[in-house]
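Exercise 7. Given the encoded structure of a 261-residue chain, write a plausible sequence.
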């Protein structure tokens, strides 16, 4: 692979935008943005000052690295569609939940370039704090992905399909489920005209302690204390919110039964 690789991004979502901009800023310009919807592809290509196409037959034949940055449920469909035009390019996807081996039937060289972070268009990523989980079908491509991840970030790990699958489940617990609990707390406070800002110091302290030591050892609350009376009062208060009551009850039982505090 040449010193400055020819990079093609397939897709135009949040990860495509952030990775494209970051790669370009680090001297790794994007040679082409390609996808099916021109209205989505064109703005990203213009932002990166590069070429674009909504026709997979126009995929750059000289591409060194094709970065498939699409929804998890679209990865295999896209792989099938671009496979006839890829040749010997390295093809990677950016998914945590999708095995890299899904690409094996379609490409000679394949891998995963997974930034472990939740991206949004409204916030700029702190790249030095984002773990990049990479893997490839051969050692040369693995080294390339490691070097590229190190260029645009700081934390780089080789993570195989089996490890990454469980890593993604853990990320859902730590991110999506935790954020859902924040949302429930916000709605409960709003019911009594209380500002969510009341929770901010507690949330900050909880995260600080979890980062300082094992979350298991940092667990507090009525479930750990075995405070049956408080738990029952909480369940009674949640009677009008049956789904949240079930969630509270399930998490309480999990703390009591499954974790060894």
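Solution.
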């Amino acid at each position: 692979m040449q010193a400055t690789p020819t990079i093609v991004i397939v897709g135009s979502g949040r990860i495509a935008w952030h990775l494209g901009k970051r790669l370009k800023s680090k001297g790794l310009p994007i040679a082409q943005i390609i996808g099916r919807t021109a209205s989505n592809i064109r703005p990203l290509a213009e932002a990166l000052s590069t070429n674009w196409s909504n026709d997979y037959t126009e995929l750059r034949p000289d591409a060194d690295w094709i970065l498939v940055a699409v929804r998890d449920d679209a990865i295999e469909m896209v792989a099938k569609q671009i496979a006839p035009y890829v040749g010997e390019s390295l093809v990677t996807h950016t998914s945590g939940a999708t095995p890299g081996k899904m690409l094996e039937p379609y490409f000679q060289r394949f891998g995963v370039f997974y930034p472990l972070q939740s991206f949004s268009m409204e916030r700029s990523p702190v790249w030095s704090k984002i773990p990049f989980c990479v893997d490839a079908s051969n050692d040369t491509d693995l080294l390339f992905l490691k070097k590229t991840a190190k260029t645009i970030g700081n934390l780089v790990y080789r993570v195989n399909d089996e490890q990454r699958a469980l890593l993604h489940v853990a990320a859902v617990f730590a991110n999506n489920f935790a954020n859902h609990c924040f949302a429930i707390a916000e709605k409960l406070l709003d019911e009594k005209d209380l500002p969510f800002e009341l929770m901010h110091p507690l949330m900050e302290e909880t995260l600080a302690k979890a980062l300082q030591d094992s979350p298991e050892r940092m667990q507090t609350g009525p479930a750990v204390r075995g405070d049956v009376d408080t738990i029952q009062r909480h369940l009674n208060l949640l009677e009008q919110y049956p789904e949240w009551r079930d969630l509270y009850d399930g998490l309480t039982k999990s703390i009591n039964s499954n974790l060894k505090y």
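Remark. The longest helix spans residues 161-191. Students should compare their own answers with the one above.
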